[in-house]
Amino acid sequence: MQYVYIVIIGLHVMAGVFWAGTTVTLARDPEIKAERFIRPQLGASVMVFLTGALLWYFFHGAYFGSMEMTLALGILAAVAAAGVLGAVVRPATRQLAGADEVTERTLRAVMSKGERVAAFLLVLTVLCMATARMF
């Protein structure tokens, strides 16, 4: 059974690192074409949520103490980050096709702002996960 835990933790961490890493990178450099990363980012977020739910089931169950409250705050921040990416960045990437130069600049600015907000929320998520044991 420990192998199952190891695989699920590995998938959770790898997907989370990809999701947070690409989001922070895109937030810092608007010249990178965010439209190339939005689908993998959202796919990684789905993997993070599925594996995170399994980890919660395995290790926390019905108990809800201060550690779980800290993790829940991180979960809420991650859900909000996925929501920002899905509601702000993804529609802007769809509108890029066939857009003129002025519209493209405006859409890229919108995507950059969305990535910055999502990056902040994902940094909060990582901080919650890293410090949850201390509460």
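(the above was protein one; protein two follows)
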Amino acid sequence: MTQTETPPVPSPQVWLVCNAASGSNDDDSVAAVEQGLAEAGFPVARTLRFPDEEAPTPAVLDAAQVDMLVTFGGDGTTHSVVAEAAGWSGSVLVLPGGTMNMLPKRLHGDVPAADIIARLGAGSLETVRPTVISSRHGVGLTGILAGPGTVWNEVREAMRALNVVEFVNTAAQAISWSANGPKVVCAEADCGRDEGYAAITVTPGEDGLEANGYYAESLADYAGQGIALLNRDFRDGPHDSLGNHRQIRLVCPSGEPMGLLIDGEPFDGAAEEVFYLATCEVDLVTTRDGS
């Protein structure tokens, strides 16, 4: 009887997208991710440097026979990569490589990239299609911020650039604009303060879109709330719960365009914006129950 050898199982085709501008995304951390993936049985065939190189489309991924796309960057990079991959039949592994890492926390818990990679099994990967926010601007994976409070995004950019003078100037302007800029209201019946809010957040959950309106009653409150806005950590600020919705309509009563951030990135808001609960259109790897 002739013995035959079982052919080795080929490694999956893996591409990695990283962004050098993200919080913890330097050359050493990217190399560590590449090494960890190789040791876990997912060697990286190609590394793309976003945004100098575009996020790959399903057509590009299919042409290269990619099985898994890995994104290692902040919330903005993750937003671009996952949105561009919508409709693709492969899976996307989202690793924390930025400051807030909202989606990785949802998929894996609050753990570093190395721990997530170590959880990857040699067999089939567990994937999910979480709820997201849909709008005319595209998908929101982690949340929406609307209102004059979005001006604090400019302060964050000054901090990233380590420009002290610009930071001081933009912070002072942000406090003033947060207090005096055109407020935003939730247009549903009996939904919050008639005068509106400096910031309304909309976050996707399993039961709907959770909306909260943030207000302040003094310049000191606005300054303190601005620091929270910088960190995208609104929980400690004074706010009203605006309920859970399948669809939510935000309006600027003055008719002016509203400030708008989606996954922390600025978009051109109109005087009225509608957001819907939707499902992510690509499989995302989850390791939350892994060990």
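Reviewer note on protein two: The chain has two domains: 14-125, 144-279.
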